[in-house]
Design goal:
By secondary structure, the chain is α/β, with parallel strands linked by helices. Helix content is 43%, strand content 19%.
Length: 360
């Protein structure tokens, strides 16, 4: 299998085409604009549809219509655009329509700037729109994972009949790396639930409205059961040096790459440091945290936000281990040396604490 040097944003579109995606509706926004550009290039080559919508609101509603017709579809945007899509994402979750949304995150709130941040976590992972629904969220940390997780995103979207978000920071979207692409999948058959045929022969109805209270409650319980099934079967995480780690670094996206380098250097200095990288942000890999906490002394969360994933880490550990936090925002990235110094400090504090306990 040959390798191709390609930008992360373009890799998403090639992977989507190979995964059977045949519809892209979107509106360009930095740092995600290359996705729309690549979709305009590649979708027509496979008989697919590309349409630059007049707004992100229009784009997500076009996804609703195309998905209802049984087509694998996707869109892409960044913070402000994702905000505009939230109502439509809620509609699609409520109507059980699969789609893939790529969120190439930038700094906020408001217009913020066009540099990378991870402050869309709450918006994407916790729902963002109205009502009782969740999106499945995948967080790549390399261009190869932009490919692999895009393919997985379409499979999960169909399996759970639900929107899936590929959440990558601007660095991952803009960087170029060599990747291997999978073989193209056989185009899936028209789903049984899809609205198809003529007006006279159509029997399916796609909707998210349930005017009867009991019917809506039953529908929400049905959605909850899907999300619980995803929690049981779809959590994914990567571990590095966690077998004997006393300090466990936690991060995703570009931050995880920094943490891996820090852990390797700390190990060379004799420090027992490991890395736990959530790949699925929802469902969150809680079981991995619980298992590693039986031997680790402290967890260190590093984020390019003011502590959004931090909340989920603390919930997962439920007070069993201390959780420290290192944050950079505004488009700033935690440096290798900054993280290493923070880790060394935590090791020293842990050693001092043990000495106090021993003396006591």
């Amino acid at each position: 299998m040959s390798r191709h040097l390609i930008k992360g944003n373009e890799a998403i579109v090639k992977a989507a085409v190979l995964a059977g995606c045949r519809g892209f509706y979107g509106y360009p926004i930095t740092p995600a604009s290359e996705i729309t550009e690549a979709a305009a290039k590649y979708m027509p080559q496979v008989g697919g549809v590309f349409l630059q919508a007049e707004s992100e609101v229009a784009a997500i509603n076009m996804l609703y219509g195309a998905s209802a017709a049984g087509v694998r579809v996707m869109t892409a945007s960044s913070g402000p655009g994702i905000s505009l899509m939230q109502e439509g994402i809620s509609y699609m979750a409520g109507a059980e329509l699969p789609c893939v949304v790529a969120d190439i995150t930038r700094a906020g709130p408001g217009l913020g700037n066009i540099t990378s941040e991870q402050s869309d976590y709450h918006q994407v992972v916790k729902g963002g729109g109205h009502g009782n629904y969740r999106t499945l969220v995948l967080a790549p940390h390399s261009v190869q994972e932009m490919v692999d997780l895009t393919v997985l995103a379409f499979d999960l979207a169909d399996r759970y009949r639900n929107p899936v978000v590929l959440m990558a920071d601007g660095f991952i979207g803009q960087m170029m790396e060599p990747v291997e692409f999978p073989q193209a999948v056989t185009e899936p058959a028209l789903p049984r639930w899809a609205v198809a045929g003529t007006e006279a022969t159509r029997t399916n109805l796609i909707s998210s409205i349930f005017l009867d209270n009991d019917k809506l409650e039953a529908h929400i319980r049905h959605l909850e059961a899907k999300y619980e099934m995803a929690r049981r079967h779809e959590t994914r995480a990567e571990e590095l040096y966690t077998e004997d780690a006393e300090v466990v670094l936690v991060g995703y996206g570009i931050v995880a790459r920094i943490l891996k380098a820090v852990a390797a250097e700390a190990r060379a200095d004799g420090l027992r440091v490991g890395v736990l990288r959530p790949i699925t942000l929802f469902p969150f890999p809680t079981a991995d945290f619980v298992r590693i906490a039986t031997r680790a002394k402290v967890f260190v969360v590093v984020e390019m936000s003011n502590g959004q994933m931090l909340e989920d880490v603390r919930l997962a550990l439920n007070g069993t281990r201390p959780v420290e936090f290192l944050s950079r925002v505004g488009g700033n990235v935690p440096s290798h040396h900054e993280v290493l110094a923070f880790v060394q400090k935590q090791v020293q504090l842990s050693a001092q604490s043990e000495e106090v306990v021993h003396v006591g």
